[in-house]
Amino acid sequence: MSHTTEWKTRTYLFEEDGTTKVRVELDTGANRLTGHGTARCNPADKDVPEIGDELAAARALEDLAAQLKQTAHRDMAAVGAGPGPASLKPYGVWMDGADVG
Questions:
Q1: Which residues contact 8 (CB under 8 A, 6 or more apart)?
Q2: How far apart are the C-alpha atoms of 60 and 67, rounded to whole Å?
Q3: For 34, phi and psi rounded to 5 degrees?
Q4: Average pLDDT of the residues in 27-36
Q5: Rounded mean pLDDT of 50-68?
Q6: Sorting pLDDT into bands at 50, 70 and 90, what band is 83?
Q7: What's the gap between Cα 27 and its chain centre?
Q8: Which burial class, exposed, middle or buried, applies to 30 when counting CB atoms under 10 A from its CB (0-12, 13-18, 19+)?
Q9: Is 33 helix (H, G, I), strand (E, B) or coil?
Q10: 53 and 22 in contact (C-beta within 8 Å)?
């Protein structure tokens, strides 16, 4: 079975007074999730806005990834694909990147 879809993301960066905030919005067609991240420049460090952008964006994407994983786990449980009693992984029937070989 072949499946192709497009998910749309938007990334918004805001910088003010040494603080960068990022909002990443994901629209899957079925769900809309928003990740948030913040980075602050240490007053003793040189202010390089690109570094703040990178750190805040990475944190927003990590937040979004955690939300997406929670959504997948809820959806898996809803269709009975939850972990068995002997499973060491949260959802042993689905492979994560380390299992692909």
A1: 26, 27
A2: 11
A3: -130, 125
A4: 96
A5: 96
A6: low
A7: 12
A8: exposed
A9: strand
A10: yes
